Amino acid sequence: MIKDLITRWPVIKQILNRADGTGVEAMTEHTLHMRPKNDGADVAHSVCPYCAVGCGQLVFHKGNKLISIEGNPASPLSRGRLCPKGSASYELTTHSKRLTKVRYRRPHGSDWEDLDLETAMDMIADRLWESRNKNFVEEQDGQSLMQNKTVAHLGGATLDNEENYLIKKLFTAGLGMVCISNQARI
Amino acid sequence: MPGLGTTYGRGGATTAPSDVVNSDVILIMGSNMAENHPVGFQWVIEAKEKHGAHLIHVDPRFSRTSAVANTWVSLRAGSDILFLGGLINYILQNNLDFREYVVHYTNASVIIPETFKDSEDLGGLFSGWDPQEKQYDNTSWLYQGVKADEGSSDHHDNAQSGGHSQHGIDSSTDLSTYEQDLTLQHPRCVYQIMKRHFARYTPEMVERYCGVSKEAFLNVAKIYTSASGPDKTGAICYALGWTQHSSGVQMIRCAAMIQLLLGNMGRPGGGILALRGHASIQGSTDIPTLFDSLPGYLSMPKFGYSSKDLASFIKANKPRTGFWNNFDKYIISMLKAFYGDSATKENDYGFNWLPRVTGDHSHQAYWLDMMDGKMDGLFVIGQNPAVAGPNSGMERRALGKLKWLVVREMVETETATFWRDSPEVQSGELKPALLGTEVFLMPAAGHVEKDGTFTNTQRLLQWREKAIDPPGDARSENWFIYHLWERIIVKAKLDPRPRNQGLLALRMDYTIKGERREPEAEEILQEINGWTVADHKQLTTFAELKADGTTACGCWIYCGVYPESGRNRGNERDPKDEYGHGWGWAWPLDRRVIYNRASAKPDGTPWSERKKLVWWDEAAKKWTGKDVPDFTATKPPTYVPPPGAEGDAALAGDKPYILHADGMGWLWVPVGLNDGPLPTHYEPLESPIRNPMYSTQQVNPAGLNRARPGNEYAKSPDARFPYVLTTYRLTEHHTAGGMSRTLSHLAELQPELFCEISMELAAQLKITHGEWVTLVTARGAIEAHALSTSRMKPLTIDGKTVYQVGLPFHWGYNGLVKGDIGNDLIAISEEPNVRIMETKGLLCNVLVGRREDNAAKLKEYHSIMEGQTA
Prior knowledge:
The complex is a heterodimer. By secondary structure, chain A is α+β, with helices and mostly antiparallel strands. Chain A has helices spanning 2-7, 10-17, 29-32, 84-87, 89-94, 117-135, 161-174; strands at 42-47, 56-62, 65-71, 102-105, 113-115, 137-140, 143-147, 151-154, 180-181. Chain A folds into 3 domains: 2-32, no CATH class; 42-94, N-terminal domain of TfIIb (Single Sheet); 136-186, no CATH class. By secondary structure, chain B is α/β, with parallel strands linked by helices.
């Protein structure tokens, strides 16, 4: 019993194993059994959302919880590196100021109010439809115009291609909106 | 986009950051790559340290990029065309062009008709200028011998509009029928016209007006032009430092021309790296949420003759020769992807359901309409115009005139809370009770909370796998659009008017997953890739697209990213070679260095062993090499098109620029640009000097300054605003800060707004380092800490000292760290081709003390400005 306790002492292990104190012999039982936070986590392959270099990210997650975001060493673009912004993308996803509920400000209001997501969607659809009904122009000089200029869109170059595609498809090809813009006026 | 698009045929970076390891010289200009693309910059460092490449940085500010450059040159912001024109002149005067490349692969030899008059002869205007309409008719810029279409009276209405879809197509003229002089001696060949056009861009002019000493300029010229010829290549990297100017497209054109003259395009270590600042900014023009183009750089139909029906639209956009001869296949397949079975031959595949463009509907144009109370609603999806828009103060005031505003974001941005927190409300100028805008702030999903692709700066599509669900009511944009459509379609079904036919026809039959009813993103990518209509088989290449309605394809340039059921090439992560094939998928068809046919000599053999990339394998009778050939694989270098051939078959085997009707790189742009066939120097909209090149043409004549009360300009020069202001980004923040000022680490690393001024200016104004100063322009005033530093150098311009001020623009009134809004200083203005504002060169004054200390003076500025435009 006592022998067992003594031999677990790192300095004794070091002497007995003739080790230099930089390996496992220097660990306590506690540290020996510590595991990295990513241990056993699932990993998703992702891409940094900031600039356009497109650095590879490994997104570790478990049970619908994000554990960490690391640079992906396999990426031939970034070779595992992330800059300060890319390294902050874990916080970008998890920080306490993330919006999780719809915020609604009524006309002339002085503060936010809560609004149910489905109700908000209904209200937005109603307003979009009302403006379209009032301002849509089907023809001009006998030629097809099919245009609405009173509702606009300002998009983001951080959206996915699939998202931009649906936006263009619904807003332009479906609703005839022409005031469509994003940052990529380059 | 049009800078590269018109010169080469495609509006995208021509190579990848990692390819600069093959460069002998790297020129970074209009970019601070080390700080804004730090991980991409590792390749520049590797090129320099492992391969001995010479790095040149030309920029008004000394930054971390300059710190590791072999050569750094400071120049006056906005004088870039003088500098680059100087390089072109140096190449031409000293016969340093890569002659064999230039003769075979560019339009240097093509003869321009006598009717063309150069800006050098017309005081700064090219021939064809219409002073009433303030636009060019490009007829005199066309090649001698081309036949203009006599059938249509307004055949130029598409070409003349410019914009994001401009890659130089104008089917009304057949650019394949040119006359040329391969000796480049004809006085009206492009080469000789260029030689005359740039003759005044001498080292002396550069010294006098850019503020770069003759020696420093000649040193750069000598080093950069050494990267040319069979055995050497050089790369040029640029970013917003070129783009955000009133002549930005023509700055990029200069670089594109230099790369053609030196034979650096389509070759390893050559090319132009357009460094994009958002994760999918390339994707956002490829699949454009922009008013003037459709997916794959098809132009939006413009109201008028050329868009009266599909046949006219195709006629106007389908040249006889070159790859754009397939235009009909691309547009009809896109309409089939949009409208599905409802798109039939009989109804022109729903072409008339697409809205027509009737003018300028860009961000800045419609924002002025908003300011004038003409807009009802606005969707802001992933942007923060209250602090990111030019003349942000005006943009915020315009938001208050909307009936409703939808903001989709991860955090409470300044745009969402303008009615409560903006400086105008804080100062009492605006009262929330009087602002009638109804605001919906909707929580959005982040990048790990949804599946989808980004297209990065090198045209590479990379798929992101969803890791976790978005929190609470946060949703993807796919969800938002789909669920909005579900609601709208119910209303449309009750209203059978023609306006709703397209809406009702819209295909939205995606698989809807889970409790939250999320559309399957992978199916959207499959649609973007395209399939056969009859049996829904994925297409492997755009060569399979048809003009008869049997294929559907959302974006033809992305065809091949999802080539078979279950194979998403954006999600493949097994790099096989130095070009990274196997990791993601680059458009078009996984070609990593585009125009790579030019990496071989006209006869198909590599220019040199050291610079081989793609070559003709005579035994196998096909093109082969380290990259996917950007050329018809079996077309031999000796191929001569038979008379009457069309499309790609009409281009000879030694014509690498296959998107162009003549297969050549365009030193001269006959169609597609709104401000001239050649770049020429105009001063920024606000400048400390008069234009030294043209006394009667101060600024780009085709641009718009949108001057009006609230968007005033300083005079050029202007004693009230003696200093040049240029804005920039920091490593630790992202654009206007919506994705960075909310994060603790980044906020702590860069907590406060500052401006950089030279030690000399600080001494002159008695400003102590760190002290508060107020920066004032004709639009607004902001306060910042003064950072007096030797990184900023006073320049001597035309005998006078010019001081430049550097200003990061990341701050606002929300987030963990707050500060004044840099973009309040910027004017709403429009470059004539892409409608971007000028942020990189304008005029300001620097007042000692905070805004409130300067209240009296600022009031004076304000009333003078008001009086000026009243």
